[in-house]
Amino acid sequence: MYPLIELATGLLFVAAFVEFGVTQTMVKWLFFTCLIVVLAVTDLRVRLLPDVVNWPGFAAGLMFSAFVPPDHEFAGFLVWRFLRFRMPEFAAGILDGILGAAFGSFLLWGLAKGYRAVRRRDGLGMGDVKMMAMVGAFLGLRGTFLTLLVGSLLGSVMARAGNRERVAMGDREAIPVAAGDVSRDWRARHRVWRTGDCGAVADSQGDRWIEGRIKVQKFAFEEQARKEKKGCSQRCKPKTIHSTFG
Length: 246
Hints:
The protein has helices at 2-20, 24-46, 51-67, 74-83, 89-119, 126-161, 175-195, 205-236. Helix 2 packs antiparallel against helix 3 (51-67). With 246 residues, the chain is mainly alpha-helical.
């Protein structure tokens, strides 16, 4: 796995250099690529999106947005359209990053809370919410919207590309896949919780870890049910009455 990760990271670095040259924009996208690769591999192996990556990445995204604002300058356009005030470029970049982070994270947070209210169980982890805040800080408002749209469609297609026994799982190495993995991850976990079929998503070490936890819980439930059944049988066993009249 690691040679593939190193190869993919190197190719992404070369693509950034070819596209942007030795500029601040290249540095921004190299940093973003590193964050996405780390989160993708971590999520693929242990099903976690650690805060130690998400929160520093969020802060770095806002900093980079000040020096290298998103190309579309959407926040500056909104301020000019409604307030007739032209913001400095660095301030417009930071505002765009904040709006992108807020839009992506609060949208996923609302979906997670809505799913829990309806189904009485978690359907989306808070790590995904924090990751989208980090992505939004880098991409801005419009970029975050396009990421969620394209990524969700891509995740749905990849999930449906697998058969009934296996759900396709991929790592997030590109911008659209960053949001698409939210959809794929939700589908895989939902299949485990709904059917209990751990083998359907046991494609990686992280999936085997989930499978092991479910087996432990299942064993504990069976053991508890066996003890309760044994205790009931002892309590409910009819007592033998010996007659003194032969």
